[in-house]
């Protein structure tokens, strides 16, 4: 499959789900584990994704939790983002229930107003707006050497793309989410409603037995650091869109899928995992914040951008369906891993 592949194709000899080629021999646990270890070793600078930029409104804060710490994010009078602890320094009220007035966050218990500057023991947290997602740096949670800005992967030009964000929560840890995304072999088996004809043509395995093809994904710039996959996205019936995609992990809580050949070349799906803290049973909870940033050189894409609010909802719905499945994968992995029964 090369750059000249058709954007829309008809599967002439579709293979039924149970008759497709098994991928379990190729999906060796060691390859996935090595890729996960490399991802976990990369620096994050203590930055965590807490939501979508579009979820930060002028009149109320965005509420989030990072490793058990309440966080609030709001817009100052000049439009910039402000972030800090979600506990009022007066009597501990949840600032998430407050209102934003003239760029100040007003507590709904007694009216204490914060403008983003330090006040009565309340200290702001570094915050970053990347145009799609909101990142907050929580040094107490990360424990790494802080970075001035988060590791944001390259994206399509904002003026020529549509971005949608979906969020889901599961009982697992961030590494279980990352491990799920670093297993591309499960796609056509676990998500047959979305993917068919999936072949992993290159892996990040280095020099070991059975190492995959050394492939940069047709200009993806990821070299042997990523999983290179040929796959077709289902449209309707036997109509599919064949693409080549590369999966990489630029930091320990992020996996990026980038289309490097075929329709939508340059489009990315960013999966970010943020630890929330334990639930009432003491089990870890993790939020998956996934950003789908789609781009196309087709003329019709301009019309799609004109209907961006509707398109975003459709994109987020599709991503949410996939994550209902993938959270089951991640939760199962955590359960077996912590009970000593994980075979990987």
TrEMBL record:
Transmembrane segment boundaries: none
Key words of the record: 2Fe-2S, Iron, Iron-sulfur, Metal-binding, Oxidoreductase
InterPro entries per the UniProt record, alphabetical: Cholesterol_7-desaturase, DUF5914, Rieske_2Fe-2S, Rieske_2Fe-2S_sf
PROSITE patterns named among the record's database cross-references: RIESKE
Taxonomy, superkingdom: Bacteria
Rieske domain boundaries: 47-136
UniProt cross-references to Gene3D superfamilies, sorted A to Z: Rieske [2Fe-2S] iron-sulphur domain (2.102.10.10)
Descriptive protein name: DUF5914 domain-containing protein
Species per Swiss-Prot/TrEMBL record: Streptomyces hintoniae
């Amino acid at each position: 499959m090369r750059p000249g592949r058709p954007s829309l194709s008809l599967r002439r000899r579709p293979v039924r789900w149970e008759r497709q080629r098994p991928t379990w021999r190729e999906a060796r646990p060691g390859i996935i584990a090595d890729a996960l270890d490399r991802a976990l070793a990369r620096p994050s600078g203590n930055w965590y994704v807490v939501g979508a930029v579009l979820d930060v409104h002028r009149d109320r804060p965005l509420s989030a939790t990072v490793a058990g710490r309440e966080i609030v994010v709001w817009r100052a009078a000049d439009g910039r983002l402000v972030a800090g602890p979600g506990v009022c320094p007066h009597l501990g009220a949840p600032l998430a229930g407050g209102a934003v007035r003239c760029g100040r966050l007003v507590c709904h218990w007694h009216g204490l107003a914060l403008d983003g500057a330090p006040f009565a023991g309340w200290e702001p947290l570094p915050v970053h707006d990347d145009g799609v997602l909101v990142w907050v740096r929580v040094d107490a949670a990360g424990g790494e050497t802080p970075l001035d800005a988060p590791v944001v992967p390259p994206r399509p030009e904002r003026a020529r793309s549509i971005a949608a964000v979906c969020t889901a929560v599961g009982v697992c840890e961030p590494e279980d989410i990352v491990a799920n995304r670093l297993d591309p072999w499960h796609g056509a088996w676990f998500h047959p409603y979305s993917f068919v004809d999936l072949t992993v043509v290159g892996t990040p395995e280095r020099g070991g037995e059975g190492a995959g093809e050394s492939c940069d994904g047709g200009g993806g710039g990821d070299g042997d650091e990523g999983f290179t996959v040929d796959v077709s996205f289902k449209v309707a019936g036997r109509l599919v869109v064949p693409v080549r995609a590369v999966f990489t992990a630029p930091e320990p809580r992020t996996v990026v899928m980038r289309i490097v050949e075929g329709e939508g070349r340059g489009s990315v799906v960013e999966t970010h995992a943020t630890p929330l803290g334990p639930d009432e049973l003491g089990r870890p909870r993790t939020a998956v914040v996934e950003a789908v940033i789609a781009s196309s050189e087709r003329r019709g894409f301009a019309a799609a951008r004109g209907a961006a609010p509707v398109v975003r909802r459709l994109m987020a719905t599709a991503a949410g369906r996939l994550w209902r499945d993938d959270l089951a994968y991640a939760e199962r992995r955590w359960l077996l891993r912590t009970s000593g029964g994980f075979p990987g």
